[in-house]
């Protein structure tokens, strides 16, 4: 409460306290009272006539109240729009729940209209009181996988205890029931036909077919109906450990009509399980790629899109639970307690309780979780427009710190009224926007309508020919708004037959800003404004002033010169862009008593070298062309009277090169070894003197010229080469012929061996025989 009163006190003192602490308002781009109101919350406008002097810009009317009054503006002539707040609807808070009332009131006011000035915050108070006996709708969502068989048996006997626990809280309680396992596709569930019908252990007889999520019982206040429906349920089963609990919670949240959620009730989902959960992306394991659409798909009490759509993400589920004012209670076994505690950090208004091994403590768990949820009040907002900020300051015993996204009060008893101070700030002008403020888990809301207070109500005289404007204009917040045919600060210029745009164009330099933004265009000429220090801008286009030159040691032009149109004119003996240096060449002198070797200028006792030459004294040029190449033609003509410059060597080269013919080099300088136009190698050294093109060259008298080639040797060698090539070609041909003959001979020998000749004699070739008698051997 003290914080709130202190804030209101500061708001009331803002005019005389906060504004006076500011030195002044920024006047850039301020041309009217509206521009001033949009510039900064501490800025106000003086509408007093004749407040500005001749030639002074109208932007000086925009400043803090203290500064304007100091300049002579009367208090009643100062325009300072304030924030306005109107409570449109504020029904009183209800004490207890009455069934005859359509809707108990737990949050007040219900509608507020704000008209805000940009940057200026406004604060209002919101009251909340939880109604005694407020209705409770509890949806019991149970994991029916095989590992929960003992828990189901206990839950079937808990109907009376559940209703008794809720009736201790309220006389208007309802309970619904739903069950879930997982998607009936691989790898989550065995898709064998027999296993789909009976996914439990073979020895377990009471088993129902596999399913994803089934809505069993809509909200009812009948204990017997609840007990009957739960008794009809049996255990089912699946393959993997995580279950499809997020699928089930999403359908329970978005299928409001089927579940039977009442409009005026505290909505609870109690999720009991001993396993973790699948979430968005896990469906890819089964080839399910379609994302969850956050819509209701229950037909014949079953979730029909279980095998078609992916699991919802935690963010999607949290958004739908918050949107439908549903508070989840996770009743889980100890092995997954940490997993669900991490989940509650992402889902607002949720609690975790640890189940016993057979769920016999679930009733007490629900009572404890409900007590924690109902004793914690969290106020937040929806649909906040851009450039609008909200800060909540709780005003209660268990208040949390002030926050921009929510305000929290903890340990709040039922029936106790608490308060939140809500501070709203608009950074820019906005038109007819709205947002809602609401407690999490409660249907009551506060609608805040926003608009901007960016214009000034100056109560201007209706006279369109006001004397202040020379009878040719009207007054608008102290400034003349000229009639057609007149222009000027006081409408003193009649443009006659000339076009106003043409006159104004003559006040623009290079088609830029009119009078550089430092003056007014009066009859085609710039009438320059005065500067903040009292001097004037000057120039044809008000482009000059004598206050914005470079500074040195925080002094304009170092105190050693005069500022003239943005540039320093230095006094005698000083130089530099800010006259920061004494005129001296000591630091620029070289060994040959030149300044920067005549390759730069000495400024502020330091050489500023020409392009390529290096500091500190511009001695070497690392980026210049190699003089061995650029001066070769001059060296050739000066030393050997040859080359392209031999006819005008004295004109082309003697001014830039001082040369001497030597037998050997004695001075250490740049050595060059280049080939001239006659093919001879010239050796010379170059030393750069002062200036850019002034060298001293020592040239060796003897050139290295190659001997001419021997004609006889060339001809003899050519003939010998041709002859040798011819002989080698003949030998190669001979070798090829010889190898071919050998091949043919071997082929003939092989064919001869394979032939078989007849052994009979050819009668054509038989030898003739002749018989001769020898008388000596005649037998007588």
TrEMBL record:
<feature type="disulfide bond">
    <location>
        <begin position="33"/>
        <end position="43"/>
    </location>
</feature>
<feature type="disulfide bond">
    <location>
        <begin position="653"/>
        <end position="680"/>
    </location>
</feature>
<feature type="disulfide bond">
    <location>
        <begin position="563"/>
        <end position="568"/>
    </location>
</feature>
<feature type="disulfide bond">
    <location>
        <begin position="604"/>
        <end position="649"/>
    </location>
</feature>
<feature type="disulfide bond">
    <location>
        <begin position="429"/>
        <end position="672"/>
    </location>
</feature>
<feature type="disulfide bond">
    <location>
        <begin position="255"/>
        <end position="296"/>
    </location>
</feature>
<comment type="similarity">
    <text>Belongs to the integrin beta chain family.</text>
</comment>
<keyword id="KW-0106">Calcium</keyword>
<dbReference type="GO" id="GO:0001540">
    <property type="term" value="F:amyloid-beta binding"/>
</dbReference>
<dbReference type="InterPro" id="IPR016201">
    <property type="entry name" value="PSI"/>
</dbReference>
<feature type="domain" description="Integrin beta subunit cytoplasmic">
    <location>
        <begin position="734"/>
        <end position="780"/>
    </location>
</feature>
<feature type="disulfide bond">
    <location>
        <begin position="581"/>
        <end position="588"/>
    </location>
</feature>
<keyword id="KW-1003">Cell membrane</keyword>
<keyword id="KW-0401">Integrin</keyword>
<dbReference type="GO" id="GO:0007160">
    <property type="term" value="P:cell-matrix adhesion"/>
</dbReference>
<feature type="disulfide bond">
    <location>
        <begin position="36"/>
        <end position="73"/>
    </location>
</feature>
<keyword id="KW-0812">Transmembrane</keyword>
<dbReference type="InterPro" id="IPR036465">
    <property type="entry name" value="vWFA_dom_sf"/>
</dbReference>
<feature type="domain" description="Integrin beta subunit VWA">
    <location>
        <begin position="32"/>
        <end position="456"/>
    </location>
</feature>
<feature type="disulfide bond">
    <location>
        <begin position="528"/>
        <end position="542"/>
    </location>
</feature>
<dbReference type="GO" id="GO:0007159">
    <property type="term" value="P:leukocyte cell-cell adhesion"/>
</dbReference>
<feature type="disulfide bond">
    <location>
        <begin position="628"/>
        <end position="637"/>
    </location>
</feature>
<dbReference type="GO" id="GO:0008305">
    <property type="term" value="C:integrin complex"/>
</dbReference>
<dbReference type="InterPro" id="IPR032695">
    <property type="entry name" value="Integrin_dom_sf"/>
</dbReference>
<feature type="disulfide bond">
    <location>
        <begin position="609"/>
        <end position="618"/>
    </location>
</feature>
<dbReference type="InterPro" id="IPR012896">
    <property type="entry name" value="Integrin_bsu_tail"/>
</dbReference>
<feature type="signal peptide">
    <location>
        <begin position="1"/>
        <end position="21"/>
    </location>
</feature>
<feature type="disulfide bond">
    <location>
        <begin position="523"/>
        <end position="557"/>
    </location>
</feature>
<feature type="disulfide bond">
    <location>
        <begin position="477"/>
        <end position="515"/>
    </location>
</feature>
<feature type="transmembrane region" description="Helical">
    <location>
        <begin position="711"/>
        <end position="737"/>
    </location>
</feature>
<keyword id="KW-1015">Disulfide bond</keyword>
<dbReference type="Pfam" id="PF08725">
    <property type="entry name" value="Integrin_b_cyt"/>
</dbReference>
<dbReference type="Pfam" id="PF17205">
    <property type="entry name" value="PSI_integrin"/>
</dbReference>
<feature type="disulfide bond">
    <location>
        <begin position="46"/>
        <end position="62"/>
    </location>
</feature>
<keyword id="KW-0472">Membrane</keyword>
<dbReference type="GO" id="GO:0019901">
    <property type="term" value="F:protein kinase binding"/>
</dbReference>
<feature type="disulfide bond">
    <location>
        <begin position="565"/>
        <end position="596"/>
    </location>
</feature>
<keyword id="KW-0677">Repeat</keyword>
<dbReference type="Pfam" id="PF23105">
    <property type="entry name" value="EGF_integrin"/>
</dbReference>
<keyword id="KW-0460">Magnesium</keyword>
<feature type="disulfide bond">
    <location>
        <begin position="544"/>
        <end position="549"/>
    </location>
</feature>
<keyword id="KW-0245">EGF-like domain</keyword>
């Amino acid at each position: 409460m003290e914080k709130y009163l202190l804030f209101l006190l500061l708001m009331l003192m803002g005019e005389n306290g906060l504004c006076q602490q500011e030195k002044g308002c920024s006047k850039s781009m301020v041309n009217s009272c509206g521009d001033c109101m949009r510039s900064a919350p501490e800025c106000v406008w003086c509408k007093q006539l004749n407040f500005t002097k001749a030639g002074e810009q109208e932007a000086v009317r925009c400043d803090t109240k203290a500064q304007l009054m100091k300049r002579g503006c009367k208090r009643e002539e100062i325009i300072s729009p304030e924030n306005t707040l109107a409570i449109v609807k504020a029904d009183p808070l209800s004490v207890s729940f009455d069934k005859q009332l359509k809707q108990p009131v737990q949050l007040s006011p219900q509608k507020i209209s704000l008209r805000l000035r940009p940057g200026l915050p406004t604060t209002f108070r919101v009251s909340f009181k939880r109604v005694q006996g407020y209705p409770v709708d509890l949806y019991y969502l149970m994991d029916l996988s095989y590992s929960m068989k003992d828990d189901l048996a206990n839950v079937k006997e808990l109907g009376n205890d559940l209703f008794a626990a809720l009736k201790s809280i309220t006389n208007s309680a309802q309970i619904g029931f739903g069950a879930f396992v997982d998607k009936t596709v691989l790898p989550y569930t065995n898709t064998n036909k027999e296993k789909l019908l009976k996914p439990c252990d073979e020895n377990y007889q009471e088993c129902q077919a596999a399913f994803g999520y089934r809505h069993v019982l809509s909200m009812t206040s009948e204990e017997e109906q609840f007990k009957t429906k739960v008794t009809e349920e049996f255990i089912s089963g699946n393959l993997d450990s995580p279950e499809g609990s997020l699928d089930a919670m999403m359908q329970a949240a978005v299928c409001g009509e089927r579940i039977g959620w009442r409009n005026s009730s505290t909505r609870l989902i109690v999720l009991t399980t001993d396993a973790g959960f699948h979430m968005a992306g896990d469906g890819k394991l089964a080839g399910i790629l379609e994302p969850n659409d956050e819509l209701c798909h229950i037909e014949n009490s079953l979730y029909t899109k279980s095998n078609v759509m992916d699991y919802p993400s935690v963010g999607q589920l949290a958004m739908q639970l918050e949107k439908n004012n549903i508070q989840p209670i996770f009743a889980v076994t100890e092995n997954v307690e940490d997993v669900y505690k991490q989940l509650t950090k992402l889902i607002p208004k949720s609690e975790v309780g640890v189940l016993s091994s057979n769920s016999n403590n679930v009733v007490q768990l629900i009572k404890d979780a409900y007590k924690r949820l109902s004793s914690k009040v969290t106020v937040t907002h929806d649909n906040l427009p851009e450039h609008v900020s909200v800060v909540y300051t709780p005003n209660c015993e268990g208040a949390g710190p002030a926050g921009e996204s929510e305000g929290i009060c903890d340990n709040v008893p039922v029936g106790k009224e608490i308060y939140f101070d809500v501070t709203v700030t608009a950074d820019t002008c906005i038109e007819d926007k709205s947002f809602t403020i609401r407690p999490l888990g409660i249907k009551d809301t506060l609608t805040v309508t926003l608009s901007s207070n960016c214009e000034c109500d100056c109560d201007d005289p209706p006279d369109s020919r006001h004397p202040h404007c020379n009878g040719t204009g009207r007054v608008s917040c102290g400034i003349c708004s000229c009639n057609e045919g007149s222009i000027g600060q006081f409408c003193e210029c009649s443009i006659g037959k000339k076009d106003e745009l043409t006159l104004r164009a003559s006040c623009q330099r290079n088609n830029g800003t009119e009078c550089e933004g430092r003056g007014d265009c009066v009859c085609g000429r710039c009438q320059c404004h005065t500067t903040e220090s009292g001097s004037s801008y000057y120039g044809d286009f008000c482009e000059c002033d004598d206050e914005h030159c470079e500074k040195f040691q925080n002094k304009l032009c170092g105190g050693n010169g005069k500022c003239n149109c943005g540039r320093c004119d230095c006094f005698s003996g000083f130089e530099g862009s800010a006259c920061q240096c004494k005129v001296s060449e000591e630091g620029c002198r070289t060994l040959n008593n030149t300044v920067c070797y005549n390759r730069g200028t000495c400024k502020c006792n330091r050489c500023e070298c020409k392009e390529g030459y290096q500091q500190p004294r511009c001695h070497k040029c690392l980026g210049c062309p190699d003089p061995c190449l650029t001066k070769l033609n001059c060296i050739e003509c000066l030393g050997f009277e040859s080359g392209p410059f031999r006819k005008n060597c004295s004109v082309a080269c003697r001014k830039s090169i001082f040369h001497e013919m030597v037998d050997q080099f004695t001075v250490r300088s740049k050595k060059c070894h280049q080939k001239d136009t006659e093919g001879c190698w010239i050796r010379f050294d170059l030393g750069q003197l002062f200036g850019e093109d002034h060298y001293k060259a020592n040239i060796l008298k003897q050139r290295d010229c190659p001997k001419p080639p021997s004609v006889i040797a060339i001809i003899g060698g050519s003939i010998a080469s041709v002859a040798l090539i011819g002989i080698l070609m003949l030998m190669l041909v001979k070798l090829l012929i010889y190898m071919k003959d050998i091949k043919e001979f071997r082929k003939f020998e092989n064919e001869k061996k394979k032939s078989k000749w007849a052994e009979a004699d050819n009668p054509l070739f038989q030898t003739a025989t002749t018989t001769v008698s020898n008388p000596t051997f005649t037998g007588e």
